[in-house]
Amino acid sequence: MEASKKNGPEELNLQPLDKLISKYASIKGAIIPLLQEAQKIYGYLPAEALQRIADKTNTDVSQIYGVATFYTQFRLEPVGKHLIRVCHGTACHVSGAERITEVCEEELSIKDGETSDDLQFTLGSVACLGCCSLAPVMMIDEQTHGRLTDRETRKIIRKFRK
Amino acid sequence: MTNNLDKGIKVIVGMASCGIAAGAEDVYIAFQKKIKEEKLPVQLEKTGCLGACYREPLVEIQMPELPSVIYGDITPRKIPQLIQKHLMNKEIITDWVVISDDISTPEQKLFGYQYRIVLRNTGNINPEKIDDYLQNDGYFALRKVLMDMTPEKVIHEMKISGLRGRGGAGFSTGLKWQLARQSKSKEKYIICNGDEGDPGAFMDRSIMEGDPHSVLEGMIVAGYAIGAQEGFIYVRAEYPLAVKRLEIAIKQAEQKGFLGNKILGTEFSFHIYLKLGAGAFVCGEETALIASIEGRRGMPRLRPPFPAEKGLWGKPTNINNVETYANVPWIILNGASKFSHLGTEKSKGTKVFALAGKIKYGGMVEVPMGMTLEEVIYKIGGGIRDDKKFKAVQLGGPSGGCLPYNLLNTPVDYDSLAESGAIMGSGGMVVMDESTCMVDVAKFFLKFTQEESCGKCTFCRIGTKRMLEILERITEGKAQEGDLEKLEILAEYIIRGSLCGLGQTAPNPVLTTLHYFRDEYEAHIFEKKCPAKSCRALIQYKIIPDNCTGCAVCLRVCPVNAISGAKKEIHHIDPVICTQCGACYEVCRFNAIEVLTGISEVIHSD
């Protein structure tokens, strides 16, 4: 619990989460959609939220934590305002995805998987976005950018910087 | 202005995910604006993947007196010219044409050799409008099944069609349905596996985005055949557009009475729900997928019992993949014999492939089973980009393998591909050229499966890790005596000691590359040489003094300041500082940077 207090500047508002929990109360096996929607509210899954879900659904928190850590979509740490996901699928890999991640690292001065100090960007990798004909590809928030080069990648990131 | 325009002009923008990524949304909006501003009598539509992904964004124009034309690389800036020349002057801009009935383009072949069953509507209809689907015989198969066929007759038809699961394993669909039908239970379920996780594959996404109703119709027919009341579509969370279009399709099908209670006035009721995956490759395995729908960690379990007997919530469940279901309405309407007429003895019908990598015309293609790899890559895909040399084709993603040039005469069918060491898989076909290192490709897939292993089976969990470490050593030039033999032994143990398909097939990329490209492994180990000049630890960038003009472009792009030299003087790359990122090589316009590899070359330089 303590870790999340360090991250979260203020007390977590649990009201919208409680609403969610009651929405899913009668649905069998709804833990994954519940976590997905909770993550939409907070941007990540704070420890307090997991505890609340456990308490209200009479489930062991270990079980919920187990699900949350199994799937890559769930994040237990806060993320930046913009989420950059560089595709590392096969087509992107053979088209230079590794270099695209490096360029992002250089531009943002963070490593793959990290969040910038100003909480503006989180840099990550994704196994495949399915836009293989446009390789190499990255996704920033909900927008996909294809046919990337060093220069193009820098240009796109700088646009988000503003 | 509008007086010049004929009625009946249709402008269709290809708006699948990859089209949108290439800028199709902007093109659509720009057209919309122009049409509104100039009050043009033009019908603007969206459609799914048109197949020619390498020329996205794609726009099709249909109008009286002119053949239908698909233009490629369309940007908002090109739209005024398209409107002026094509719509008003009725003049086709031949340079921009990708495909048209009357104009011969090199890419014509892309479609000429194809046979479209699964993709019959993708790229032709607006996936967000059920009426478009209905006008193309949509839900006719469902009507036929409910009015004229018993469930047993439907299953019989599927069996004689010879349709096998398109998710990879290739089990007979009819037989699968029969087993689920025979299981006694009041509650039964249908699941559509849309957890397309193979990197390099996007067939299922394109189908869900381009023709969602055909997937729903296939599922409803399956529900009727096995006696199920509910169906679930499990879609990857990374496919937001597929999710959106399926949601729309389900709502529309419910409104029209194709889904819900008492479908088309019969006693048969069926509901479909969407379940979003949360990012776990192993959930493509059916028992793991079921665990995930039930809200648990997606870990596979021992089979039997198979899902047909004990599946979702312990009830009989039929799981098929997206492409499998999309075949069903066509088979019902056109007859099993027409379907089984296509393909080879044991692999019937067609297969959709996602052609990607270093290929000239990458995209979505559907071909009759039995076509050779060479025909797919060269006749349809146009061969290798930038006139480089073909090295390998990767089939079946992390479970598949890499095949060399001399196996390109292999027909694409389940059994021939399995014999070669690759697999049909779900249909990803990534073409690699001489600049791709096969050891690196094997390492790439192993890294993937190692990360995605759920951890249940020891050999999969630890064995893949050990294999990965060996591959890392090899690509870093630190290989040890006997490493290749160790890889082979570990591969054997992992295959035998794993419960599910993930582990059982994880060593395939290593085994096929070891088999067909062993010399490349040996070059890495014994000569510290990467023949593809791709493994960073084994290469060195060097300026060719005779070619260097001292333009300083490379110097400016180098992220680690490894390049020195005054302007107009020959530059120098410091091999100690250089990280081999290749940025200088990419920008040099004078061919003044060379890549060295191997003990002999690297030692003799500087």
Secondary-structure map:
The complex is a heterodimer of chains A (162) and B (606).
Chain A: H1 2-7, H2 15-24, H3 31-42, H4 47-57, H5 61-70, E1 82-87, H6 90-94, H7 97-108, E2 121-126, E3 138-140, E4 143-145, H8 150-161
Chain B: E1 9-14, H1 17-21, H2 24-37, E2 42-47, E3 59-63, E4 66-71, H3 79-88, E5 97-100, H4 108-112, H5 130-135, H6 140-148, H7 151-161, H8 173-182, E6 189-194, H9 203-210, H10 212-226, E7 230-235, H11 240-255, E8 271-276, H12 286-293, E9 317-321, H13 322-334, H14 336-340, E10 350-357, E11 363-368, H15 373-380, E12 390-395, E13 401-404, H16 414-420, E14 428-433, H17 438-452, H18 458-475, H19 483-496, H20 501-505, H21 508-516, H22 518-526, E15 539-543, H23 553-557, E16 563-564, E17 572-573, H24 583-587, E18 593-597, H25 599-604
Parallel strand pairs in B: 1-2, 6-7, 6-9, 7-8, 10-14
Antiparallel strand pairs in B: 1-3, 3-4, 4-5, 10-11, 12-13, 12-14, 15-18, 16-17
Helix pairs in contact in B: 6-10, 6-13, 7-8, 7-10, 9-11, 10-13, 17-18, 17-21, 18-19, 19-21
